[in-house]
């Protein structure tokens, strides 16, 4: 079975398993785990922020950011197909008591400065006030598009002019940086905080990083404890995370494999394939007369797994457990399935 459901399905390398076994550890709630401390310092450096916090999941990182940046009862301005809106169980409402207002970021999922200004709500006796703008890069539901740093800057500047802090859901921001051929820190220059995942294309078994100013991270650390994420000898999983930080350049291989997969699938009658910019390939199945679920069931019977994204949209995601030969085989299986 060639598993292209997500870049989260990878299993840790032997090197990562050894690093976990041999990790220097301590009680991280006391700030005494050397592996975590090193990971946080290196992660902050990667994204050009003062400090960073190790969190178990990307979801927790995004949720902590919302809680720290906002006050209860404010509005969160989010893109209508963003992960924080679609796939985090309405967490902004549950954890931070925020009302969510959606913007339509179009095909690339990035709001323009005008849209940010139009979506902004000024606090008064009737209205709650906007407490946060969240952006996403790469944008998962828009097909892993790598948003240009200038567009992130422009949206963030518009929010800052209105006094609104900006959080970047950068679960795959390293993919975006590689695709745009810029340092990861260029992607985060104008945002106040960023979350990025070690457990996706970078290949770690667990973990994400939440970065921002020293003051932000200090508050985030308290909020992580509040959310039940204060861990102890967590260097056991931070040590593979340190190795994951060395894998940024390797993401280019996943992007090449996604491009190969897309080219092959584009030749299959009935499939409309969005040319990928990173490691995500979206396939529209409508012309084949199939729903995405029907298509994916047939693919699975033929030996390839993907995920359903919309009624007629399926997603295939490349990662370090698949190589070029695997994606070529996967494309053949999909052709057979149809
Ligand atoms: C864009 C984006 N943000 C956040 C997350 C959440 O990460 P996690 O699964 O570690 O909670 C994901 C996971 O797929 C994602 O794709």
Overall description:
The protein is α/β, with parallel strands linked by helices and 338 residues long. It contains 14 helices and 13 strands. The protein has helices at 14-22, 34-47, 58-69, 83-86, 91-96, 113-119, 149-161, 173-180, 184-187, 214-226, 235-244, 251-266, 292-302, 324-337, and strands at residues 2-3, 51-55, 75-79, 99-103, 130-136, 166-169, 193-197, 208-212, 272-273, 280-284, 304-305, 307-310, 313-317. The strands form 3 sheets. The chain has a 7-stranded mixed beta sheet, sandwiched between helices. A 4-stranded antiparallel beta sheet has the order 9-10-13-12. Strand 9 and strand 10 (280-284) form a beta hairpin. Helix 2 (34-47) runs parallel beside helix 11, helix 3 packs across helix 10 and helix 6 (113-119) runs parallel beside helix 7 (149-161). The longest helix is centred in the C-terminal third of the chain and has 16 residues, at 251-266. The chain is globular and about 60 Å long. 50% of the residues are buried. Bound molecules: pyridoxal-5'-phosphate (PLP).
- Gyration radius, in Å: 20 Å
Please tell me the overall pLDDT. 97
Strand content: 15-25%
By DSSP, the count of extended strands is 13
Bound molecules: pyridoxal-5'-phosphate
Helix content: 40-55%
Name the strands of the widest sheet in spatial order: 2-8-7-6-5-3-4
Largest sheet: 7 strands, mixed
Task: Spell the H/E element sequence.
Answer: EHHEHEHHEHEHEHHEEHHHEEHEEEH
Rough outline: globular
Q: Which structural class do you get from the secondary structure elements?
A: alpha/beta
Distance between the termini: 17 Å
Q: Compute the number of helices.
A: 14
Note poorly predicted spans: none
